[in-house]
Design a protein that fits this description.
Aminopeptidase; Allantoate amidohydrolase (chains A, B); globular; zinc (chains A, B); Bact_exopeptidase_dim_dom (chains A, B); homodimer; 12 helices; metal-binding (chains A, B); alpha+beta; 24% strand; 2 domains
Chain lengths: 398, 398
């Protein structure tokens, strides 16, 4: 079924490109709609293109247990990221219905329209619309690289015209997301399941070192204000401090740009990003504060100027303790080894978490590879995840 | 006169843009031709656009003493780079002629058509054509950024059609180039004149560190193969080694590019340039050899791959000892302080040096600034340079 869904938007390199409101995206949602219908679910879209399949609870005026993940992918991404959570939800609902009939509470599987932000500069559009964090105003002025507006793309897909129900929900009891880890921890530790306690917080900074651009041949070493040299010292320090500070903290310099970036000119300016993540905001803050003090003294020692700009500040998100406990009970009873862990990546769960009880569950990613055609999870691991989901939904809804 | 010549191709920022075979370049050469005629020189172009003004020697079948520099500039460059050497030569020839009449040997001033390589990927086109190192075959397939071919640009300027004499010369006795230092050494040491002993050799390398691109959130620090981290360690080492090795050695990382260069992805690949210069080739070679051994062990320690590619290897060029001695005698006699020094930048002199006795003489550059509208040399320093040139030409030709 992973292969089947992966065929919508299959790329030349055997990956998947299924961007929001593209033809491939539309075909995939339509195919899922058909399949949900076939297994006996009540199926409907909302007006941003989220697709739901529902087992209606037998209790009157009851709340809804929602499970699922996102259907969009990055360009040339994998078959599992997002898709696995949607497929797992459908299989779970089918199994529960066929085995136990209708639940007491409503259970719904959702194929969220968008999470990756890979077409428009907008992430979590699906989950954000359901939880009311995102509204139509947020996308009013967005365009993609082909200069197609968000609104036009949405309307061309048949959404955003009031034909379907409004996305904001008030009946959600909890949200359960099954996802691939996108890291290598579970595989290395031979754990088939990860029970996520937190999604880490992340702060991103732009660091600019301003030195003096000069001739590479006529400027003696002692007189230089070499922005690249100073920047390389800061990067060395950052990574060393990150390694020694806390085993769960990660810090990355993913982007660096020099000016003028010419082989025979001493760089006058070096700009680089710093991405720092941890599940405890205080750890990030203390680490950054201490680090940037050291940055400043290095810059001062080389008589270069330093600018530090914080441009992203995502708070850590705690998953629901009660749902974690239920998962742990199920796993212990079934003798499935698991790891309670933080998620280093962002997920739709972080939009749901402040809104309703939320649980994020991982299966291993082979070699940690994700956002790549080489994304892979073994079938037995996929199955273990679905079995856990089934039992968890049963506990909550029957 | 510097201001007058600088008016041809004057840029908005009060700099000069006078690229090879441009309208500005053509106007400047035509204006120089007129001025050379006016001061009584025999004036002629060669077929690549080098402009010569000649005082014909009284001896029969005598050789020629050539002085001058280049007329082309980088984009938004300064008024002094190249131009000073041309102007100084004209003033010197005028003074010598008016004071002493015709010399025994021929003396010529040359306004070389091109040195900078800032329009086409070709440097030293003027001096290279005179010395036979460059020929028409070398420029046959070159185009500029506007896709105009070298040949077409040359022909549109009236050259390259056999209308003028062939550029290759066999009558040159020596070449004397007066130039701004383009560095800060003379100013800092309060020396009005630099007598150049060598033009340094330079080797340029492209260093590639290949690590593993991975998710910045889900990959623990201990498992990373971070190409940026490893590269920053190599850069730190390079600069530290350069500082401690030899006070005359300079090493520069001017260019660095990451892949994929995205804030939330650990760089899988870092490519950077290394530019190493010294007047002794052995010093460069020993330094590089030792350094790259250390590079390799750092890369190995982080289990990253390392590629080292040498893409430029310019040998050091020695200036003529005898001409240096004559300059030193003149300066000592006139009680002008001077510094015998290496040139960290390349000059037309390095094309002439293997071909005929060659001397390169510097005047100070304020703050070492060059290739910039802020290029500046004090009038009294310009004058000291011209006085030295006059006396040197007198020694050689009268």
């Amino acid at each position: 079924m992973v292969e089947w869904l992966g065929s919508f938007g299959k790329s030349k390199s055997n990956g998947v490109t299924r961007q929001l409101y593209s033809t491939e995206w539309r075909c995939a949602q339509k195919a899922l709609e058909k399949r949900m219908n076939k297994i006996g679910l009540d199926v409907y879209f909302d007006d941003v293109g989220n697709l739901f399949g529902r087992l209606t609870g037998s209790r009157e005026n009851t709340t809804t247990i929602l499970t699922g993940s996102h259907i969009d992918t990055v360009i040339d991404g994998g078959k599992y990221d997002g898709a696995y959570g949607v497929i797992a939800g459908m299989i779970a609902l089918q199994y529960l219905y066929e085995t136990y009939g209708l639940p007491k509470k409503n259970i719904e599987v959702v194929s969220l329209c968008e999470e990756e932000g890979s077409r428009f500069p907008m992430t979590y559009w699906g989950s954000g619309s359901i939880t009311g964090v995102r509204t139509i105003e947020d996308v009013q002025n967005l365009v993609d690289l082909q200069n197609i507006s968000f609104i036009k793309a949405m309307q061309d897909s048949g959404f955003g015209q009031g034909k379907y129900r409004q996305p904001k929900r008030n009946d959600l009891d909890c949200f359960i997301e099954l996802h691939i880890e996108q890291g290598e921890v579970l595989e290395r530790e031979a754990m088939p399941i990860g029970v996520v306690s937190h999604i880490v917080g992340q702060k991103r900074y732009e660091i600019t070192v301003i030195g003096e651009s000069n001739h590479a041949g006529t400027t003696p070493m002692a007189w230089r204000k070499d922005a690249m040299y100073v920047a390389s010292g800061l990067i060395q320090l950052l990574i060393q401090r990150a390694k020694e500070t806390n085993s769960d903290l990660v810090a990355t310099v993913g982007q660096l740009n020099l000016e003028p970036n010419i082989a025979n000119v001493i760089p006058g300016k070096a700009t680089f990003t710093v991405d720092i993540r941890h599940s405890d905001e205080d750890v990030i803050d203390q680490f950054s504060k201490k680090l940037f003090k050291e940055f400043q003294s290095i810059a001062d020692r080389h008589t270069t100027d330093l600018k530090i700009k914080n441009w992203m500040d995502e708070k850590p998100t705690k998953m629901c303790e009660k749902l974690i406990e239920i998962s742990e009970l199920i796993l212990t009873k079934d003798q499935i080894p698991y790891k309670k862990m933080a998620s280093g990546a962002g997920h739709d769960s972080q939009m749901f978490s402040p809104f309703c009880a939320t649980s994020l569950l991982f299966v291993p990613s082979h070699k940690g590879i994700s956002h790549s055609p080489h994304e892979f999870t073994r079938t037995e691991d996929l199955e273990k995840g679905i079995r856990l989901l089934i039992k968890l939904l049963y506990e909550l809804a029957y």
